[in-house]
Each structure stands twice: as structure tokens, then as C-alpha cells.
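testing teh design pipeline on a random one, pls ignore if ur not involved
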């Protein structure tokens, strides 16, 4: 069992929780994730990237967006509440080395898993340029934390309410056109964003790493739900990733697979939301 030590709302439907998980905090490395199961009664298991860890305090930090039933119920929990199962750290850690100039791009909730990676890249002696993208200013997260690490911080919003009115690929292309061009790029965010970041850097032959967040059940490679095609070969995100060469990922196939259960997820979310609203009004038990 894992107790919630802290809970903060970062933006609309985006929450940060810090939970007790001493063994995970001690072993975790940038790029790794956990599988969270709120209760043990056949509850859904969801992957969440570890946004930060404090081995001294024995805690890990998770940042998530409410998109379905489980994340909705997770958002209803508060400080002192218990999460029954947290499994990890899982996945292959980010390969951290001194490359030179590294551009790190985070889009939406993808900014959260990018945070420990940029810290590690900076500690390794790299010049780190960070590009953050969000639909609006209100949905931008971790700006100050990224600013504290970045040699240069570029912010883009779709509506122009903050920073540049642009997609993240626009400043990325400008950086790639410079001489010298970046030595490496990391991109984490929506699949469509990562796809076009990879297409942008492909033209300049800049190595590009993406972190994939696919459908996942067990996190150990047994279910096959997270399979993706990378370089024409089948890979499993939970054990072979979550990071891959962005120029080799078949993003179109991945995005089709991500849509497979969208209708079921939406219905489960709406049913859960209505049940909790009714329970709140009648004084019953929620979740």
C-alpha cells in the first residue's frame, strides 16, 4: 500500500501526487514508469511515468491527466489516502550521456516525464534547450522547474495566450537549421506531436528519442497490448521501451491502436463521473 503524502492540482484535469514508495524511489532512473492500481478488486492498471523521486524521503512524484475512469478516481483521492498497488520501476531508463547540445521537447502532460530527463542531461554536462508546448497558458505545467534547468526555454501555445503562437515543431526546425545543429533531440507528448518532431529532425539527420505511452496492462511484456512497430520489428513499450528511435517508430499504426478502446474509455469515464456525482449528492460512498 502507498500513502499519498501530497496532492496538488497543476492545471485543469492535471494533478501531481507525491506518494510513499521507498524502494521505487531508491531504484528509479529517468525515463522509467510505474503501474498503478488504485484498489485490488479487479481495478484497471495504468502506467504513469515517474516525474520525480526523493530517496531520502522515500517518495515518488506522479503527474497525470484525467482522461478515463481510473485517472478520474485517482484525482478524487487526497492526502492521506491509500493507493493499493504501485509496481515499478519499469521500463528501460533513459540513456544519459554528454552529447553536446540537446533539445528537449515536452507537449501537454508529456512535460512531466521530460522533467527528470532534462535534469539528468544537464547534470551530464549538456547544453539543454527546452521547448514546451500547450494548448493554452492555463494548461502549461512545470514552467519554473524547467526554467531552473534550461540553458534556453522556449514556450509555445496553440492559441498564442503565452509564449509563441506556434507548434513546437516550428522552433525545433529553426534550431535544426542553425550551424551547428543540435546533437540530439528528446520529444515526449501526444503521439501526433512526437511524429512530427521526428519528421522535422529526420530532414536534418538529428538523432531523436521519443517516449511512447501506449495501451498497457501488466507492464511486464506478457499481455502484448503495448506492442509497436519500430524499424519494421515488433517491440513492447513496457520492456523494450518506453524510449525508441523516433525515426524508426510507425506512429500511424500506433495511433490507430491507441484509438481502439476510446469509446469504451469515454463511456467508463462518464459512468464513473455520474456515479460519483450521485454518491456525493446522496451522501453515499464514491469511487
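output:
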Amino acid at each position: 500500500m502507498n500513502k499519498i503524502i501530497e496532492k496538488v492540482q497543476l492545471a485543469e484535469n492535471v494533478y501531481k501526487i507525491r506518494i510513499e514508495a521507498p524502494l521505487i524511489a531508491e531504484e528509479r532512473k529517468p525515463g522509467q514508469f510505474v503501474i498503478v492500481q488504485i484498489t485490488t478488486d479487479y481495478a484497471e492498471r495504468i502506467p504513469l511515468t515517474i516525474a520525480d523521486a526523493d530517496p531520502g524521503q522515500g517518495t515518488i512524484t506522479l503527474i497525470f491527466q484525467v482522461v478515463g475512469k481510473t485517472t478520474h478516481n485517482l484525482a478524487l483521492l487526497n492526502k492521506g489516502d491509500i493507493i493499493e498497488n504501485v509496481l515499478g520501476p519499469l521500463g528501460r531508463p533513459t540513456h544519459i550521456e554528454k552529447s553536446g547540445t540537446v533539445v528537449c521537447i515536452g507537449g501537454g502532460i508529456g512535460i512531466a516525464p521530460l522533467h527528470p530527463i532534462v535534469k539528468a542531461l544537464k547534470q551530464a554536462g549538456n547544453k539543454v534547450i527546452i521547448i514546451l508546448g500547450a494548448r493554452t497558458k492555463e494548461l502549461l505545467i512545470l514552467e519554473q522547474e524547467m526554467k531552473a534547468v534550461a540553458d534556453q526555454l522556449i514556450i509555445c501555445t496553440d492559441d498564442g495566450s503565452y509564449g509563441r503562437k506556434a507548434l513546437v515543431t516550428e522552433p525545433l526546425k529553426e534550431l535544426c537549421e542553425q550551424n551547428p545543429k543540435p546533437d540530439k533531440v528528446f520529444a515526449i507528448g501526444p503521439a501526433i506531436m512526437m511524429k512530427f518532431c521526428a519528421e522535422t529532425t529526420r530532414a536534418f539527420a538529428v538523432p531523436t528519442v521519443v517516449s511512447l505511452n501506449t495501451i498497457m496492462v501488466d507492464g511486464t511484456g506478457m499481455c502484448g497490448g503495448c506492442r509497436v512497430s519500430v524499424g519494421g520489428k515488433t517491440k513492447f513499450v513496457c520492456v523494450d521501451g518506453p524510449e525508441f528511435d523516433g525515426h524508426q517508430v510507425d506512429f500511424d499504426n500506433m495511433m490507430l491502436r491507441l484509438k481502439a478502446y476510446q469509446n469504451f474509455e469515454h463511456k467508463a469515464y462518464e459512468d464513473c463521473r455520474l456515479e460519483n456525482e450521485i454518491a456525493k449528492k446522496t451522501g453515499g460512498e464514491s469511487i
